[in-house]
Each structure stands twice: as structure tokens, then as C-alpha cells.
Amino acid sequence: MNTDRTYYSHDAEVRAMREITKLTLLCLTFGLGIGAALALFFAPASGKRSRANFARTIEEGLATGREAVEPVVKRIEEDFADLRHNVEAGVTHLK
Predict the structure, then answer these.
(1) How many domains does the chain have?
(2) Both 50 and 91 in a single domain?
(3) Residue 43 — φ and ψ, nearest 5°?
(4) Residue 42, CB half-sphere, CA atoms under 13 Å: how many?
């Protein structure tokens, strides 16, 4: 028996692909819901404590990100100031 599908029109093929996509998204959503429920069920800490830990982790990450970005921003500002000075000097020299 041949298991390949034969589509007699482009519309039939498009409908079949949409159905497959809908089924995939439904299964993915269902799986994520089950995973979230299991994660909450087996969480080692209470909700209040977990939220506090999560907030602290986010704050630490933001602080680390700011520390990493700050030198880059200062360097860009310095380069931009040098470029501006050079452009102004070039324009003044052309006049």
C-alpha cells in the first residue's frame, strides 16, 4: 500500500498544511501547559520565595549587563566626540 498522499489541487495541499500546523501548535501548547504545571508542582520553594529569587536574579543580571555595557557606551561617546571634532575641523579647513 502506498502511503504517499496525492493532492489534486493546490488548495487541498494548503488546507492539509494548515491542519498540520494547527495540530502542531495545539500539541505544543498542551505540552507547555503540562510542563508548567509539573514545574509548579515539583518546585522546591513556595511561590513567594520563588518570585523573590527570580526578581533577585533578574536584578543581578541587569546590574551585570549595565556594568558590561557602560565601558562600551563611554568608548562610543569618545569616538563620536573625536569624529565630530575632526568633521568640524575639516569643514572649517574647507572654508
Answers:
(1) 2
(2) yes
(3) -65, 135
(4) 5
